[in-house]
Amino acid sequence: MPSERWYQGGLRFECTACGNCCTGAPGYVWLTREEIRRIAEFLGRNDEWLPMETLRRVGLKYSLTEKTNGDCVYLVSAGNGRRTCSIYPVRPLQCRTWPFWSVNLKSPAAWADASEKCPGMNSGEEHDFATIEEIRLRQSWE
């Protein structure tokens, strides 16, 4: 990324619970072992692991699985056209940092493309440059 980023003036984002970021083309939601443990604990599992219906191994990494329609395995209907994450309090870092991913911040066009599917982008709370960068570069929950 260039040293002068196009979003230095900040960006607006507020989650609308549409669930669009949790569905679509096949992909990966990467998990660390600590995230797997936290999700398992949240779900009341004593073995600190997730069942194979919800977790897959990809090489040396782990990813959440998807339903046949492309939805994340933890995406559920909340009624009134809203969808929500059933593990929201312990959702993976990858999910926590949406939409401030480097791929979305590459250019104004990349942001605009992502915002076509995410109604929370370009609306709601304004995030300043420092906050966006902190989220984009985050490596852990803490």
Determine the strand fraction and express it as a percent band. 15-25%
- Contiguous helical run count: 5
Report the major sheet: 3 strands, antiparallel
State the end-to-end distance: 25 Å
Assign the structural class, choosing from mainly alpha, mainly beta, alpha/beta, alpha+beta, or little secondary structure. Answer: alpha+beta
Q: H/E order of the elements?
A: EEHEEEEHHHEH
As residue ranges, the low-confidence spans are: none
Q: State the shape.
A: globular
* Nearest-integer average pLDDT: 94
- Helix % is 10-25%
User: Which strand order spans the largest sheet, edge to edge or round the barrel?
Assistant: 2-4-3
Gyration radius from CA atoms, angstroms: 16 Å
Q: Give a count of the beta strands, DSSP E runs of length 2 or more.
A: 7
Number of domains: 1
Please provide a written account of the structure.
By secondary structure, this protein is of the alpha+beta class. The protein has one domain (11-137). 25% of the residues lie in helices and 20% in strands. The chain contains 5 helices and 7 strands; from the N terminus they run ββαββββαααβα. It has helices spanning 33-42, 93-96, 102-105, 108-115, 129-137, and strands spanning 11-13, 30-31, 55-58, 61-64, 75-79, 82-85, 121-127. The strands form 3 sheets. Strands 2-4-3 form a 3-stranded antiparallel β-sheet. Strands 1-7 form a two-stranded antiparallel sheet. It has a two-stranded antiparallel ribbon with strand order 5-6. A hairpin with a 2-residue loop joins strand 5 and strand 6.
